[in-house]
Write a structure and sequence with these properties.
The structure holds two protein chains of two kinds.
Chain A: E1 5-16, E2 19-31, E3 36-40, H1 47-55, E4 62-67, E5 70-71, E6 79-82, H2 94-106, H3 112-125, H4 141-154, E7 159-163, H5 171-188, E8 191-196, H6 199-205, E9 208-212, E10 220-225, H7 234-238, H8 241-257
Parallel strand pairs in A: 3-8, 3-9, 6-7, 7-8
Antiparallel strand pairs in A: 1-2, 1-4, 4-5, 9-10
Helix pairs in contact in A: 2-3, 2-4, 3-4, 6-8
Chain B: H1 2-10, H2 23-52, H3 62-74, H4 87-118, H5 120-133, H6 141-149, H7 152-177, H8 181-189, H9 194-232, H10 237-246, H11 250-279
Classes of the chains: A alpha/beta, B mainly alpha.
Chain lengths: ~260, ~280
C-alpha cells in the first residue's frame, strides 16, 4: 500500500528499568493527499508516540515512515506540528511567533515584504488578525491554539500534524476551532493527521478515523470511512444517518471491544 | 533577598492605571501605598528615640544622629583630600569597585552558566567545584587575592567578582536546563541551527533566571564590598564605616548604614528593572 504518506510496519519500544516496553507494534497506514485522518484511542495507546514518529521527533524501532516518497528520519517544516499546549514562545508576539517559522522556511525564497504578508495571511486564516501584537500571555487558550495552527500552516507543510490540538479547551471554544480547521481544510486542501479522544470531533472533521487498540503493543484496530459530504456544517451533519453510523462505530470500538479498565 | 524576589512575583499584574482614576480615588490609592511604610518608619524611629535617650544608652538616638551628621548629609560633595571626602565620593568609590567586579562576574557567570546548562559533560565536571567554592565566605578570598594582585583595589574588585559569580552561574544554568521540551521540539521542526537555537530560544528562555542570579549577585557584591573595604582601606563606604568606628563616631556609622541600605535596595531594583526590559515580562 502506497499513499502520499505511508506508515509501514512501524513499531516502537522503549527500554525501561523493568525491561523493554512495546508501545506500538506493526502499525501500517497510507494517507492520500488532502485527506484528513483522525487517530483516536484511549489515553496511553501510543497515538502521540505515532504522531511523534511521523513528525520525526522520535525514531521508530521497526518499520519506516515515507512522505512523498522520502523516508522521514528527522523533524522538518514539511511536517508541521500543532502541539497540544500550543508551544508558542512566550517572549514573542503572535506575529513574531509565526514570522519566526516563515523566516526560517521562506527566508531564501521570499522577500521580506512577501514574508510579512504571508505571516499576516496565515494569522488571518485562523481569525487572529486583530491580535498580531499580543503575546501568548495576553491571549486566551483558544487564541493561542489558533496562533499555533497559523504557525504550522505558515510553514506550508506537506502534512499537518495536530496533536490533540483542542484537548485543553472548553467545549464552545473547541467547536469554534473545529469550524476554523474545517474552513482551512476546505480552502487549502491540506493533508492532516489529528490525534483526538473526542468522538464527535473525529467524525466531524475526518475523512477516515483510525482507531487504535489499547497498549502495550498498540496497533490499528479498525478504520472508519466517514462518508459525509464536504463542506460539512456542524448542525446539518449531526442529523445525518452517516454521522450517527460513524459515531456508533467509533463508540462501539472504544467502549465495547476495547474498553479500558480504568 | 529572597523576600524581595518573592514579593515581585506575587504582585498582581494588571494594576489599574492611576491616570484613569478620579482625583479622590487617586489620592486614596497613593495613600494606601505610601502611608503604611511611613507609619512603620515613624514608629521605629520613636522606639529608637525613647530607648536610646535613657541614661547610659550606648547608642545615639536618631535626633542626635541627625544633629551629629548634619554637615555630612548637607554637603556630600566636599573633598579635603585623602580619605576625608564627602559621602557621595565614598559611595561612588564603592560603586565603582562593585560595578567593575559585578560586570566581570555577570559576563563570566552567564557564559559559564550557559556552558554547564548546555553541556552535561561540563555540568558534571564543573558543578561540584562550583558547589564547593560558592560556600567560601567572600572575605576568605581577600588574603589570597591580596597575595595574587599585591594591590588593594584589584583585590577588592576580585572579592566582588568571586562573590557575585556563583548565583549568576547557577541560576543561568538552571534557566538553560529548564528550557521546556516543547521549545526544543519547535526548534527541531523549524530546523534552527545551533546559533539560531541559542539566540532565539536559549537566551530569551533563560533571561528571567539569569536576572534572578544577577539580582542575587548584585546584592551579595554590595554586602561584600563593605566588608572588603573595611580591610583594604582607601576611599569607600566600607572604610568610612571602619574609620568611624576607630574614631568613635557612632552617628556617622549609623548614617553610612542607612545609605548602604538604600543604595543596595536601588541596585536590586535597577537590575530587576533591566531584566524586565530585556525579558519583556515580569521576573
Amino acid at each position: 500500500m502506497h499513499g502520499y504518506l505511508t506508515i509501514e510496519q512501524v513499531g516502537k519500544s522503549f527500554e525501561t528499568s523493568k525491561g523493554p516496553f512495546t508501545a506500538l507494534s506493526n502499525v501500517s497506514l497510507a494517507i492520500e493527499k488532502s485527506e484528513f485522518v483522525s487517530i483516536i484511542g484511549h489515553s496511553g495507546c501510543g497515538k502521540s508516540t505515532l504522531l511523534n514518529i511521523v513528525a520525526g521527533l522520535s525514531k521508530p524501532s521497526t518499520g519506516a515512515v515515507l512522505l512523498d516518497g522520502q523516508v522521514v528520519d528527522e523533524p522538518g517544516p514539511d511536517r508541521a506540528v500543532v502541539f497540544q499546549n500550543h508551544s508558542l514562545l512566550p517572549w514573542l508576539t503572535a506575529y513574531a511567533n509565526v514570522r519566526l517559522a516563515v523566516d526560517k522556511v521562506f527566508g531564501k525564497t521570499k522577500s521580506s515584504s512577501e514574508r510579512d504578508a504571508w505571516t499576516k495571511h496565515n494569522l488571518a486564516l485562523v481569525h487572529m488578525e486583530h491580535a498580531l501584537g499580543k503575546k501568548p500571555d495576553e491571549l486566551s487558550g483558544g487564541m493561542r491554539q489558533r496562533v499555533g495552527i497559523a504557525r504550522a500552516l505558515a510553514m506550508q507543510p506537506k502534512i499537518l500534524l495536530l496533536d490533540e490540538p483542542f484537548g485543553a479547551l472548553d467545549a464552545l471554544t473547541r467547536a469554534h476551532l473545529q469550524d476554523t480547521v474545517m474552513e482551512i481544510h476546505r480552502d487549502t486542501r491540506a493533508t492532516a493527521i489529528m490525534i483526538t479522544h473526542d468522538v464527535d470531533e473525529a467524525v466531524l472533521l475526518s475523512d477516515r478515523i483510525v482507531m487504535m487498540t489499547n497498549g502495550p503493543a498498540a496497533t490499528i484496530g479498525e478504520i472508519c470511512e466517514v462518508g459525509l459530504e464536504r463542506p460539512r456544517r456542524r448542525l446539518q451533519a449531526v442529523d445525518t444517518p452517516e454521522y450517527a453510523r460513524c459515531r456508533k462505530q467509533v463508540l462501539q470500538f472504544l467502549y465495547e471491544r476495547h474498553a479500558k479498565a480504568a | 533577598m529572597t523576600g524581595t524576589l518573592g514579593e515581585a512575583e506575587g504582585k498582581p499584574r494588571a494594576k489599574p492605571w492611576l491616570a484613569d482614576l478620579r482625583p479622590l480615588e487617586k489620592m486614596r490609592s497613593v495613600a494606601a501605598v505610601v502611608l503604611p511604610p511611613l507609619i512603620t518608619i515613624g514608629v521605629l524611629l520613636l522606639v529608637w528615640q525613647v530607648l536610646c535617650s535613657q541614661e547610659g544608652a550606648s547608642l545615639p538616638p536618631p535626633s542626635k544622629v541627625l544633629k551629629d551628621t548634619w554637615e555630612l548629609i548637607r554637603d556630600p560633595f566636599f573633598d579635603n583630600g585623602g580619605t576625608d571626602v564627602g559621602l557621595f565620593w565614598q559611595i561612588l568609590a564603592s560603586l565603582k569597585r562593585v560595578s567593575i567586579g559585578f560586570s566581570l562576574a555577570a559576563v563570566c557567570g552567564v557564559a559559564l552558566g550557559v556552558l554547564i546548562g548546555q553541556s552535561s559533560f561540563a555540568y558534571r565536571g564543573l558543578d561540584p567545584i562550583f558547589q564547593v567554592l560558592r560556600t567560601v565566605p567572600p572575605l576568605a578570598w581577600l588574603p589570597i587575592s591580596l597575595a595574587a594582585f599585591k594591590d588593594s583595589n584589584p583585590s577588592a574588585i576580585f572579592v566582588i567578582f568571586i562573590t557575585a559569580i556563583w548565583p549568576i552561574i547557577l541560576n543561568t544554568a538552571v534557566g538553560v536546563r529548564q528550557i521546556p521540551q516543547d521549545y526544543r521540539n519547535i526548534s527541531r521542526v523549524l530546523r534552527l541551527n545551533a546559533f539560531e537555537y541559542f539566540t532565539k530560544i536559549v537566551l530569551p528562555a533563560s533571561v528571567p533566571y539569569m536576572f534572578t542570579g544577577l539580582r542575587i549577585g548584585v546584592g551579595l557584591s554590595w554586602l561584600a564590598i563593605v566588608a572588603a573595604e573595611m580591610l583594604v582601606g582607601g576611599v569607600g563606604i566600607g572604610f568610612f564605616i571602619w574609620d568611624g568606628w576607630n574614631s568613635s563616631l557612632l552617628s556617622e556609622i549609623i548614617l553610612a548604614l542607612i545609605y548602604v541600605g538604600i543604595i543596595g535596595f536601588f541596585l536590586d531594583r535597577i537590575i530587576g528593572f533591566i531584566g524586565r526590559l530585556i525579558a519583556g515580562r515580569p521576573i
